[in-house]
Amino acid sequence: MFADRAKIIIKSGKGGDGHVSFRREKYVPNGGPDGGDGGKGGDVIFQVDEGLNTLTDYRHKRKFAARPGEEGGKKKCHGRNGEDLILKVPEGTVIKDAESGKVIADMSGDNRRQVILQGGRGGLGNQHYATSTMQAPKYAQPGGEAIEIEVLLELKVIADVGLVGFPNVGKSTFLSRVTNARPKIANYHFTTLNPNLGVVDLDGAAGFVIADIPGLIEGASVGIGLGHEFLRHIERTKVIIHMVDGASVEGRDPLADILAINKELEAYDPDILKKPQVIAANKMDVCMEGQDEIVNTLREHFEPEGIQVYPISAVSGEGVKELLYHVQELLAQCPSEVTVYEPEFDPALQFFKDEPFTVEVDEEGIYVVEGPKIEKMLGYTNIDSEKGFLFFQRFMKEQGILQQLEDLGIQEGDTVRMYGLMFDYYK
Fold first, then answer.
1. Higher pLDDT, residue 72 or 134
2. Which pLDDT value is given to residue 192?
3. Cα→Cα distances 58→5, 87, 102, 113, 343, Å
4. Nearest to residue 13, comparing CAs of 385, 395, 380, 383?
5. Which is it for strands 85-89 and 44-48: parallel, antiparallel or unpaired?
6. Which of 66-70, 97-101, 136-140, 380-384 has the highest mean pLDDT?
7. Which of 55, 274, 303, 421 is least enclosed by beta carbons within 10 angstroms?
């Protein structure tokens, strides 16, 4: 079975705790605090590997975790950062939140490497908490918590052209003739259980990648047979080739087959039918002389809609070149960029959503934001980095903190305190 779908649990590394210790030297009996900071927890990173074409590696192992950061040490020693976890996936893998089904990341196009879960920030050692009134602090900051979520990995094959049709119409034979692919070919239904990709080279024209999408059956869009396993591979294709048995060797009605497949595609995703289509009436080499009623019927039905019909023989090669050049013309009219799904879900924001917080003004006029949600967020986020600061801004807005500050009458230039973080408020 083609491994194009897997559900796994990923976990970032917990940040190392800050350390509590004090200088103890022969001639310094009352040394100050010297507890070191904890190390940052490891990130969970997904990376495209050109050598992979399935998700098999994630079929037999369910849990993946980055390493935690080490605790800080004496003499201001910084704990070691936890090692990142790099998970390699094929190009075209879409990472979704398993619970909501929303897209976290799409490993396609220019997106070759992405941090999905950040490790917890290392906790500050007690050296940071010394003040004029508290010269021997016995407190150190805990490391930021790890984040654990369940994700769904879906591989959506990236090809320019999708070759569709009912089983046994000759798709594998066609693919083996026009590309460098070597699919297994046999005379029985559901021969192809995984998409075969091949590159078509054309004289005097740009080549393209074609994918033989496994045989569809009616009811595929609602999961009958291996429906969803197959349909997801056609989402990224730009042009669709419908292949039918033009000689009706097995007594099938080619017109009914095309209409049935289009119905399944529309039920799965109506946008798929907006893609350019072309019809390949295969097996014309076994037609009786003058037996072209099927081709004429297809042309009468589809050519008024702008869908061309090409009688071909995948065995002899008759009509194949004309079909391929027409497909290349259709591709030339399509946008060149790869379809990439936009992120819909941020695991970090989800991680903080159920924690409480308070927004108040103290006697000095400082706006104080506190609570487990805020402490957890600060333990997870590196405010000093550009990405961390942007996350911090989005967190403040989406959690309603900015709105609450404005409701309390905050003005530009006023001070906001979040535990150890102090900043001036500006819109």
1. 72
2. 40
3. 9, 10, 20, 18, 22
4. 380
5. parallel
6. 66-70
7. 274
Q: Look at residue 171 and give its three-state secondary structure.
A: helix
E strands present in 234-352: 239-245, 277-282, 309-311
List C-alpha distances in Å: 327 to 8, 173, 230, 254, 416.
39, 18, 22, 20, 61
In angstroms, what CA-CA distances link 278 with 102, 163, 236, 329, 355? 33, 10, 17, 11, 54
β-bridge mates for residue 279, sequence order: 242, 309
pLDDT digits (tens, 9 = 90+) for 261-303: 888 888 888 888 889 999 998 888 766 554 578 888 889 999 9
φ, ψ of residue 128 in degrees (nearest 5): -80, -10
Among 77-91, 122-136, 192-206, 233-247, the range scoring the smallest mean pLDDT is 192-206
Q: Tokens 């089904």 sit at which residue?
A: 101
Place of tokens 């590997």: 49
Output the pTM of the full model: 0.65
> Per the structure block, which two tokens stand in for 211?
């994918």
The half-sphere exposure of 72 on its side-chain side, counting CA atoms within 13 A, is: 31
Dist CA 33 CA 29 (whole Å): 12
- Rg of the chain (C-alpha set): 30
CA distance 97 to 10: 11
Highest mean pLDDT among 102-106, 398-402, 414-418: 102-106
Are 196 and 183 within 8 A, CB to CB? yes
Alpha-carbon distance of 418 to 403, in angstroms, equals 16
**Residue 195 near residue 158 (C-beta atoms within 8 A):** no
The sign of the CA dihedral 120, 126, 128, 129 is positive
Number of helices and strands (H, E) in the chain?
Answer: 9, 18
Identify residue 296 by its one-letter amino acid code: N
Alpha helices in 16-100 (DSSP H): none
Q: Tokens at residue 73, please?
A: 């040490």
Q: Which residue has the higher pLDDT, 180 or 326?
A: 326
Q: Which residues pair with 368 in a beta bridge?
A: 360, 417
In this structure, what token pair is assigned to residue 287? 């037609």
Rounded Cα distance, 43 and 11, in Å:
8
